[in-house]
Design goal:
Layout: E1 2-5, E2 9-13, H1 19-25, H2 29-34, H3 43-61, E3 65-70, E4 76-83, E5 91-97, H4 106-120, E6 126-132, H5 136-144, E7 148-153, E8 162-168
Parallel strand pairs: 5-6
Antiparallel strand pairs: 1-2, 2-3, 3-4, 4-5, 6-8, 7-8
Helix pairs in contact: 1-3
Length: 169
């Protein structure tokens, strides 16, 4: 199901048909470094990740992480969306791209459209984002879409301090 369309991108619900792509994305060096190892090593693992993560969130909340694909070519390049974590009070925006599609403006295009969607379509009053301390590219992108750095936080059952950004509507 298509959720957001921009000049160059379509953001749509993930399905088990996207397992090959998710397997690749979740094993990218940048994913493993900045987001963490989710233990996705097989197509079955990728299908489970999609079913218990994004698809479950679509059912429960009506939103989640979306597949980003190039509009004209229909090539999957990343994920971006809104997530409700138990350890954060507010909905947060998350994104990740295959390394071959980074630094081309796609992350900004997807994240800014997702932020607008959260405000205008979901009527969210506050959206947050978290990044690892050394993920300077994500921090820069969050600031570029209008989010403000609020401080450092620790999520429940986590020992790594993270940067917290917020957008108040």
């Amino acid at each position: 199901m298509k959720v957001i369309e921009t000049e160059r991108l379509i953001l749509r619900w993930l399905s088990n048909d996207d397992a090959d792509f998710i397997l690749s994305l979740l094993n990218e060096p940048s994913w493993l470094r900045f987001i963490g190892d989710k233990g996705v090593r097989t197509l079955e693992d990728a299908e489970d990740y999609i079913s218990t993560g994004p698809m479950d969130m679509y059912t429960r909340l009506g939103f989640g992480l979306y597949l980003i694909e190039l509009k004209d070519e229909r090539i999957p390049i990343g994920i971006c969306g809104l997530i409700k974590r138990d350890s954060l009070e507010d909905v947060d925006i998350g994104f990740a791209m295959l390394s071959s599609f980074q630094s081309k403006g796609y992350g900004y295009e997807a994240a800014s459209a997702t932020l607008t969607y959260g405000i205008e379509q979901l009527s969210l009053k506050r959206i947050v984002a978290i990044t690892s301390m050394d993920n300077h590219a994500s921090s820069k992108l969050l600031e570029k879409i209008g989010m403000k750095f609020e401080g450092n936080i620790l999520l429940d059952n986590d020992s790594e301090e993270l940067k917290l950004y917020a957008y108040d509507c």
